[in-house]
Design a protein that fits this description.
By secondary structure, this protein is mainly alpha-helical. The chain has helices at 3-20, 26-50, 55-62, 64-80, 85-107, 112-133, 140-163, 171-193, 203-208. Helix 1 (3-20) packs antiparallel against helix 7 (140-163).
């Protein structure tokens, strides 16, 4: 996982979680989705070109496209006001792929921490499938809160640790990460049950609705 790209994935996940919670308009979130999506497509392409046929390097870069295509898709859909079902069904494919990358992290890369993180991402993409592909609106707030909560510990924090040379994967750290993510999932479930806070709606938005 390229750590520079991962840093900005944390930003776009945070924004998209807030979008699902109704805090950020979809069109306003589109630009960052396009920027990060483009970065997550350009970066693995460069890495694959420079790999010189090294299959491990190519495999490591290949997962970045899952993020790149997702965010480009979201950005374009938000700007063009497309139906979200396509993103949802694409997310089902990505969720399955994320489970495979999790297994590779555990047994091929010997990095149990990212094995746990890939599973967390698989859960998020599975929820995107349920909300956007199957229309399970009752899960929207839970998905929004979980996306907000997962954005930093699965992306920003490990990215900064890796960029500063402080990332040391171990079984103990993997269990700690799993416990933290499980706790955040519980908090997201509790918050999702609360009624959304009433907010004033700008006149332009109300007219558009």
């Amino acid at each position: 996982m390229n750590q520079v790209g991962l840093l900005y994935v944390g930003a776009v996940l945070l924004l998209n979680g807030l979008m699902l919670l109704g805090r950020v308009p979809a069109r306003s979130a589109a630009a960052l989705n396009l920027f990060v999506g483009a970065l997550q497509c350009l970066t693995p392409t460069v890495l694959i070109i420079q790999a010189g046929g090294d299959q491990d390097a190519i495999l490591g870069a290949s997962g970045l496209y899952l993020f790149g295509f997702t965010y480009l898709y979201v950005g374009v859909a938000n700007l063009a006001n497309l139906e979200p079902a396509g993103i949802g069904w694409f997310s089902l494919f990505v969720a399955g792929a994320a489970v495979v990358y999790s297994g590779l992290s555990f047994w091929h890369d010997h990095d149990p921490v990212f094995g746990v993180i890939w599973l967390a991402w698989a859960l998020l993409w599975a929820l995107f499938f349920a909300v956007l592909g199957l229309g399970a609106e009752r899960l929207t707030r839970f998905t929004g809160w979980l996306t907000v909560f997962f954005s930093q510990p699965t992306c920003t924090v490990p990215a900064f640790l890796a960029l500063t040379g402080g990332y040391r994967p171990s079984a103990g750290l993997a269990w700690l990460a799993a416990a933290l993510l499980a706790a955040l999932t519980g908090v997201a479930a509790l918050l999702a049950r609360r009624a959304p806070e009433p907010r004033s709606v700008p006149a332009a938005t109300a007219a558009a609705a």
